[in-house]
Amino acid sequence: MARAFGSKNFDDGVIAKVRGAVVFDGLSVGAAAARHGVSEHTVRQWKYKARDAGDDWDKARAAQYLAGGSLDDVLRQQIAATLQATAVTLDLVQADGELPPADKARILASLIDGNSKCVAMHEKLMNRKMNKAELIAALKGFTDFCIETKPALAGEMVSLLEGFGARL
After folding, report:
1. How would you class 150 by CB atoms within 10 Å of its CB: exposed for 0-12, middle for 13-18, buried for 19 or more?
2. Residue ranges covered by each domain of the chain
3. pTM of the model
4. By CB atoms within 10 Å of each CB, which of 19, 35, 42, 94 scores lowest?
5. Who's near 113: CB < 8 A, 6+ residues apart?
6. CA distances from 147 to 64, 110, 116, 152 (A)
């Protein structure tokens, strides 16, 4: 079914693609609009109408992130969304012949800053995960040592470590 917005008609396929870009790809409304050649205003109208009809794109995106499973999945999605938004923004900045160079520089600096913060957050969380992996490896080594040196305590040691492992 075609829907009229402004002077253009958009079929439900375009609306579904834009919704998918927002919900599943994690793009902002502006980035999704630019990706699909639709005005940001039109996409916001679609989003509001969908929300009023019971399809809240923001809640659906949050559910998508949560359904992603592990922290790694969420981080991968967030980094992918950041990189996609950066690519769309760079394309728009480069294509805009009327944007003053100072504004282009400001936008590019902001993109670099945002990407740097995203990467730093990812590295911090990955380091935390690595520290946990190193701790587990050390505990496994200690368990092996205890079993070799005090075999009579092996059952009790394994039981204690399983209980402690649940806290990690």
Report:
1. exposed
2. 1-69
3. 0.44
4. 94
5. none
6. 45, 56, 46, 8
